[in-house]
Amino acid sequence: MQLKFDIEALRYAIENGIIDLSSVQDAMEKKEKEYYLSLHPYKIWQGSNGKWYTYIPDGEGDRILKKRNSESDIQNLIVEYYKSQQNEPTIKDVFMDWLNEKLELKEIEKGTYDRYYNDYKRFFGGTDFEKNKIKNVTEDELEVFIRKTIVDHNLTQKAFSNFRTLIFGIFKHAKKKKYTTISISAFMKDLEISKNVFKKVIKKKEEQIYLEDEIPLVVEYLKSNPTVLNLGILLAFQTGLRTAELAALKPTDVVGKTIHIQRQEIKYKHPETNKCVHEIKEYAKTDAGNRYVIITDSALETIEMVKRLNPNGEYLFEVNGKRILTNSYNDGIARMCKALNIPRKSMHKIRRTYGTTLIDANVDESIIMEQMGHTDITTTKKFYYYSNKNQATKEAQISKAISI
After folding, report:
1. Taking the model in full, what pTM does it have?
2. Burial code of 177-216, b = ≥16 C-beta within 10 A, e = fewer?
3. Contact indicator for 52, 44 with CB cutoff of 8 Å
4. Lower CB count within 10 Å: N or C terminus of the chain?
């Protein structure tokens, strides 16, 4: 009865001009157009000849340049393309829809967007699988693709984790949109993959951390060549900060004998120029990353030296008024290691060295977690702890421990 009344009321409103049906239709079409344009990952631009351009996927994993006389015409072309794809989207269509939605909803940063997109090109790009209509993909076909990708790309377990993230994203999004009936969570739970199929990465411990014989040489070199960049590397040894945190430090972040970590530098490709953009974000990497790192008197001295070299900078580490970017620190390390004739090791290896030093010094685990910006001490022990002792020290400790 209620439904009949609602229909009668709607008909009355239209017939008596209370509701302008054409205006409603215009609003609906505008909303629909905005939605389809939001799915489009490529820029729209006007050439010097007055024509309008964009790229349209060609269905073969590539793109085709399209030209129209007006902006409206090029937008209509885009809308028609995505309308034709909506009911029977391919794997790639669903991926792009999922990825653009995550960026639009601010669930990921542009840097993460670029990483997911590059991973997609690595694992899916140019394959017959990505061209499949997702509604036609069976669980058997999906399993074959996953296993074949592991073998063809000789994936490590870490690389497989990145691949797995995309599989989850694509098929969860497709299930939500009712493009597929595959429950990817249940599928992946039932999927049994032996650890033996993954590429084994043998890491030499001496390449993962600065050894106890190297640290004094490194510290002496950095103090003897006190540029702003070198002092930044020295402060990393003294605090264990992430490079992105170091690059975003301001003098005002130093509070007493602590450094407040509250922002970071992120990197991503500019969508139009395709150049790398370095940008400061006013938040830490994680909730645990927003922290007060306790520093020593030596670290305070390093900071004071930097302030004398850069007295008026907005950021602590600047040269000629320009902030030192994350990439520059690894370049500085390369020069340092070459000068000292030791293996080249990245800024992240400095952070591992710091974590190892805290653990070896029997610092309380809760303090180590706070200093490192971790939520679980197992993260520190699993990924940041390596023995950096030389052979003589190891032999002496074993001899002391084993008395029988």
Report:
1. 0.66
2. eebbebebeebeeeeeeeeeebeeeeeeebebbbbbebbe
3. yes
4. C
